Amino acid sequence: MPWQANYSSKIIFGSQAVKESSNLLEDIGKNALIVIGQGGSARKNGALHDVCELLQNASITWDIFDQVEANPSIDTVRAGARLAQANKSDFIIGIGGGSPLDAAKAIAILAVNELDNDALLNLQFKNVLPVIAIPTTAGTGSEVTPYAILTFPLMETKKNIASPKITPRLAILDPAYTCDLPFRVTVDTAVDAYSHALESYLAVRSTPLSELYAREALRILGKQLEMLTKIKKLDMDQREALLYGSMLGGMAISTTGTSIPHAMGYYLTFFKGITHGRANGMIMPAYMDFNLRRSNHPKVKEALILSGFQNLEQFADLMTDLCGQAPVCNEAEKDKFITQTLQAKNLVNNIVSPAQEDLVWMLEHMLS
Ligand code: NAP
Ligand code: FE
User: Fold this and answer.
1) Cβ 104 vs Cβ 71: under 8 Å
2) Cα–Cα distance between 74 and 310 in angstroms, integer?
3) β-strands 157-162, 147-152: how paired?
């Protein structure tokens, strides 16, 4: 069967990458909306300063929307879109972790399309504003993906808006912006990046090209995760490796999407307040145990070996070391967990499709 690839981002990677992008802004627009997180990290790590300098030199005007919370809600995105409309922004620049980047992508849709939540999730839009993405965490790969993951409080979960139209036109990655990431955020986001590589490698939708990205990401990130159990302070080479690995993971899932850990993790984030990457890390040992028991495909073992693990026990110990034990769930919570997870479209994207009893098994495994 023929396979397809759809990579539309131009990527600039390395030290001073924003300055190096000055000649790439010419055709993108004249009035930007910059989208950043509400904690103000983009102001502290220098990324916002560098971007504003770049825009000023290019005679581009800008406004700043600085209200994006972790796991951004649709309401926050709508507020950002209203600002973009009021200011007649003609392109959007997201700076930050996956939350501001995803919010920027969704604002790019809603700034030029009047859509209710159903219409948005059903992708009933033709045009979107161009997006530039500048990651300051090394985890989601959102700077190169066609996804925006938003929290819909009334649906009590997170939902993925997936469209190649929101893949950032330009991704600018400078590891220097990630240097002051708190250690906890560094670990959680690195685990998210690793989970992208792993889920992509074992995805039904994997292709020879996505496997190439996933294998390299597994190799780089497996080594870095091991290192994160030993040290607390990272040097620039390690920051660069994490950012590169995270971008590769993003390239891999751009084709394949994610699968079981992401589908199950949304519950832990929404109801238990566990960060996205850490939630995936709590689930991955049960997920790999399930895969090893239920699939004879050589890729399952290969994924562990490529990442530098001799066996499942080593993998599970490392994940527990980095992400800790899953929270206690009562019977009603477990029922809700399973019901919610069964609705996720990406469940069937794993090398073995899980039945309801398999999800229950993985949940009990994770809680044990
Ligand atoms: P995040 O929610 O964007 O940020 C987490 C925390 O880190 C925030 O407090 C943020 O502060 C802070 N932070 C960010 N950069 C920093 C820096 N350089 N120095 C210090 N603090 C910094 O975390 P994330 O894990 O990157 O993103 C998670 C979101 O991405 C989730 O909603 C997840 O579902 C989504 N995701 C998207 C994709 C995709 O393909 N689109 C893939 C996987 C996950 P501020 O408030 O200042 O920003
Ligand atoms: Fe993720």
Assistant:
1) no
2) 43
3) antiparallel
Q: Give Dmax over CA atoms of the chain in angstroms.
A: 59
Pocket around ligand 1 at a 6 A CB cut-off:
37-41, 45, 70-71, 96-100, 102, 136-137, 139-142, 145, 147-149, 158, 177-178, 180-181, 185, 189, 192, 276-277
pLDDT at residue number 296: 87
Q: How far is the CA of 28 from the CAs of 24, 133, 142, 161, 352, in angstroms? A: 8, 13, 20, 23, 43
Q: How far is the CA of 218 from the centre of ligand 2 (A)?
A: 15
Q: What is the CA radius of gyration of the chain?
A: 20
CA distances from 33 to 7, 19, 30, 66 (A): 24, 19, 10, 10
- Name the residue with the closest Cα to ligand 1, atom 31: 71
pTM over 0.90: yes
Q: What share of the chain is helix, strand, coil (3-state, %, to 5)?
A: 55, 15, 30
Q: Is the pLDDT of residue 351 over 90?
A: yes
268-298: string of b/e by CB count within 10 Å (b at 16+)?
bbbbeebbbbbbbbbbbbbbbbbbeeeeeee
Question: In this structure, are strands 10-13 and 157-162 parallel, antiparallel, or unpaired?
Answer: unpaired
Q: How would you label 25-40 residue by residue, b for 16+ Cβ within 10 Å and e otherwise?
A: beebbeebbbbbbbbe
Centroid of ligand 1 to alpha carbon of 97 (angstroms) = 3
Mutate to test the pocket of ligand 1, among 185, 221, 278 (most ligand atoms within 8 A of CB): 185
Residue nearest (by alpha carbon) to ligand 1 atom 14: 97
Span 139-166, average pLDDT:
94
Mean pLDDT of 270-284: 95
Distance (angstroms) between ligand 2 centre and the Cα of 195 equals: 7
